[in-house]
Amino acid sequence: MKTMVLLIGNYPPDQQQSMHRFGTMLLQGLTAAGVAAELVRPTPFFGNFRLAGAFVAKWLGYIDKFILFPRQLRKKIAEHPVLVHICDHSNAMYVNYTAGIPTVVTCHDLLAVRGGLGEETDCPASRSGKMLQRWILAGLRRARAVVCVSHATLTDAKRLLISEAGGPSLTVATLGLNYPYRKLPLDEAAARLKLSGLDPATPFVLHVGSSLRRKNREGAVRMFARCKDKWNGRIIFVGDPVTVPMRALGQDLGVSDRMIEVRFPDNELLEALYNRATALLYPSRFEGFGWPVAEAQACGCPVICSNIGPLPEVGGEAALLHDVDDEEGFAADILRLTDAAERERWSEKSLRNAARFDPKEMIAQYLEIYRSLTPQL
């Protein structure tokens, strides 16, 4: 069957797990909807030679992505797909190779682009990084359609992509969950934690994300430390390892022995953590969407998050919101949710809000966008 939609995914060695999941979710959703789709990614070749160190490996990866992959992409374009969809805006430079074919780009955020332009987004750029972000920006401006994952990202896109000379069509398609997170029976969630060496009887708040400055993990440690004398809970950091400065901060605040890290869990363990957590603590300084907020709510986990960018949009009325610097307010809500009845009330709100993040609805929105560009679909 001829490929109708060619999806362009991310370079595997970059380990952008959420973007890989998004590309796979699109492929599976389109296939289930009866649309012939194919997902292509830059093949690691030079980027596999990692013994030279991270800096050299990065530049070897650029050879794979920007010299070798365009040759592969040209062959795919020569097969005349009806539409090309670049799944991550950081690959928008590939628009240069899709001339004559309607091209859609999903824009997850413009934080790195803004950082490359000198704006404060906690995403500083080197000289080469600034060049890369301008290349990405030029590609976005040449796309037929840019689909933003939130209205906050749409606001940035209108400012940066549209000029008097025109620009791409802009719209919003809410992300769907890339795994069917759900509320589990208590004993099932507890069993999964036990298998991973965690004590399900010990209460905890959860932080999910990387150690990037914009994720504000240090702020989460300080917020948790404010609760230490009133609640005998733990804080579990999921994702990147806890950094040495974070551990030192915990030591200074007297909570380092109550900080637990779970590095890159599978979906089943993460689902159990969401289910058993007192709350997801998510005090980010900058976000494009905030997938963990939706994931947590789908498990009935209350969310305490900052009121920046898209987080109020994603969390809806089910999120407890604070200014990012209101660490006392975050701590007060952690303690508030240690009350079982109060947690249950916010848990029910979370489950209702999470119904918005249906992947089938996301696919339906993309199909509508595709068909506005090419009736052949």
Write the layout of secondary structure elements.
Elements: E1 5-8, H1 17-32, E2 37-40, H2 54-77, E3 83-86, E4 103-107, H3 111-116, H4 127-142, E5 145-148, H5 151-161, E6 169-172, H6 186-195, E7 204-209, H7 217-225, E8 234-239, H8 244-253, E9 259-262, H9 267-276, E10 279-282, H10 291-298, E11 303-306, H11 311-315, E12 319-322, H12 327-336, H13 340-354, H14 359-373
Parallel strand pairs: 1-2, 1-3, 3-4, 4-5, 5-6, 7-8, 7-10, 8-9, 10-11, 11-12
Helix pairs in contact: 1-14, 6-9, 7-8, 7-12, 10-13
Q: What is the chains' assembly state?
A: single chain
**Unreliable stretches covering 5 or more consecutive residues:** none
Task: Summarize model confidence as the mean pLDDT.
Answer: 94
What overall geometry do the principal axes of the alpha carbons give?
Answer: globular
- Pattern of helices and strands: EHEHEEHHEHEHEHEHEHEHEHEHHH
